[in-house]
Specification:
Helix 5 (155-177) runs antiparallel to helix 12. The chain starts with a helix and ends in an 11-residue tail after the last helix. The protein has helices spanning 3-27, 33-60, 66-93, 127-145, 155-177, 193-211, 227-246, 254-282, 287-301, 310-334, 342-356, 369-401, 408-413, 415-420; strands at 119-120, 125-126. A two-stranded antiparallel ribbon has the order 1-2. The chain has 431 residues and is mostly helical. A hairpin with a 4-residue loop joins strand 1 (119-120) and strand 2 (125-126). The protein has one domain: Orthogonal Bundle (Ammonium transporter fold). 68% of the residues lie in helices and 1% in strands. The chain contains 14 helices and two strands; from the N terminus they run H-H-H-E-E-H-H-H-H-H-H-H-H-H-H-H.
Length: 431
């Protein structure tokens, strides 16, 4: 081979290899490390909310039930954590448009661990990060429900119920609103007002009514055992909520800042409003009222966080505190035993936020205000009806097949001793 041919061969080889490298570079995904870092942080924040919720609930029950109540939150981390990896993500975010989504590539997350689906082109993050972020929402939702029937359920029955509820209630709702289902692009639910808070609040109310009141309620005094722990739990929830709402932007820019800002404003406004109400009605502010106001504001802003201006967050925080205070006051008059006011806070504030956001949108959709208000109302109504009906059916099945309500002697002895063989505070009196 003469020198001319050698030169031509080298040039041809360089062109081919260069073209191949350019094609690979064009097809290779571009990872936004800034957004990825923020989403990893948000995922940790949302998981932090689960032990925060355990502390919040654990401090509100009687001493003999503190471990049993906190176990409800931690058990959800284990049970739903496995179910989400196996099939939960596939049911919520699969491509099919029916009752739930499905994609075999998402089964056990195998199809997003590598290959073309390993990255989300629209956000520049690994799909696994988004899957784990969404998985924390799936964990905390059934844990929220547990507060409604605290101090009176069997641990086995509870575990079976939340597994079924996650598969048959949460996953379909998440698919309908977020995963490409029939409400996606219509009802605005930025971070879970309908999917999480309304569904959990309504489910909690239905189960509390089905199981009946705690033995001795309301004649027997059932004061919180540790309001200091409840305050710390509320603080962790507030911090975690920044990941909950701001992380739902799946970005790290202006929309993230907007969501974080209105989250802070609504929480503070709800807390301040509740303190003022307490001062007017009782002449003093209470720690229990303060944390209730924090949660009311946080829940109300959750569906609206990416779409309303700061003044809207103030108004939603005020309205949520007023409505939730009224709902909790009505509980004693109606006589039902929603132990830790899951419906009174999460259900009611979720409705306030999901419908109220229509009045404070930064940009009115092309289809107009009235159409959006209808979409929001439709989303709320669907969430209420679906969660109520399915929760009642599942509660009935679990109760008849496995037992849901504790026997009287075990309930009187307390969940900690009867169900777990432990006590929460060493040598303290268990009454």
């Amino acid at each position: 081979m003469n020198w001319k041919r050698k030169i031509l061969l080298c040039v041809f080889t360089s062109i081919v290899l260069g073209s191949h490298n350019n094609l690979w570079a064009q097809s290779a995904p571009t990872v936004d490390t800034g957004v990825t870092a923020w989403m990893l942080t948000s995922t940790a924040f949302v998981l932090l909310m689960v032990p925060g919720l355990a502390m919040f609930y654990g401090g509100l029950v009687r001493t003999k039930n503190v471990i049993g109540t906190m176990m409800h939150s931690f058990a959800a981390m284990a049970i739903i954590g496995v179910l989400w990896a196996v099939c939960g993500y596939a049911m919520c975010f699969g491509a099919s448009k029916g009752w739930c989504g499905w994609d075999w590539d998402y089964f056990l997350l195998k199809g997003i661990d590598h290959g073309e689906k390993a990255y989300m082109a629209d956000s520049g993050i690994p799909t696994l990060v988004f899957a784990m972020f969404q998985g924390k929402f799936a964990i905390i939702t059934p844990a929220l429900i547990a507060g409604a029937f605290a101090e009176r359920v069997r641990f086995k029955g509870y575990c079976i119920f939340i597994a079924l509820w996650s598969l048959l209630v949460y996953n379909p709702l998440a698919h309908w609103i977020w995963g490409g289902g029939f409400m996606t692009g219509k009802a605005i639910d930025f971070a879970g007002g309908t999917v999480i808070h309304i569904s959990a609040g309504v489910a909690g109310l239905v189960i509390a009514l089905y199981l009946g009141r705690r033995r001795g309620y309301p004649r027997t005094s059932m004061h919180p055992n540790n309001l200091v722990m409840t305050l710390m739990g509320a603080g962790l929830l507030w911090v975690g909520w920044f990941g909950f709402n701001a992380g739902s932007s799946v970005s790290s820019g202006l929309k993230t800042a907007q969501a974080l800002t209105v989250t802070q404003i609504a929480a503070a406004t709800g807390a301040l409003t509740w303190m003022i109400i307490d001062g007017i009605h009782h002449g003093k502010a209470t720690s229990l009222g303060l944390v209730s106001g924090i949660l009311a504001g946080l829940v109300a802003i959750t569906p609206a966080a990416g779409d309303v201006e700061p003044y809207g967050a103030v108004i939603l925080g005020i309205i949520a505190a007023l409505f939730c205070y009224g709902a909790i006051s009505m509980k004693s008059k109606l006589g039902y035993d929603d132990s830790l006011d899951v419906f009174g806070i999460h259900g009611v504030a979720g409705m306030v936020g999901a419908i109220g956001l229509s009045f404070f949108l930064r940009t009115v959709p092309e289809h107009g205000f009235m159409k959006q208000l209808w979409y929001q109302s439709e989303g709320v109504l669907i969430s209420i009806l679906y969660a109520a009906i399915l929760s009642l059916i599942l509660c009935f099945i679990v109760d008849k097949l496995f037992g849901f309500r504790m026997a009287e002697d075990k309930e009187m002895a307390g969940m900690d001793h009867s169900l777990h063989g432990e006590i929460g505070y060493g040598l303290l009196n268990l009454n």
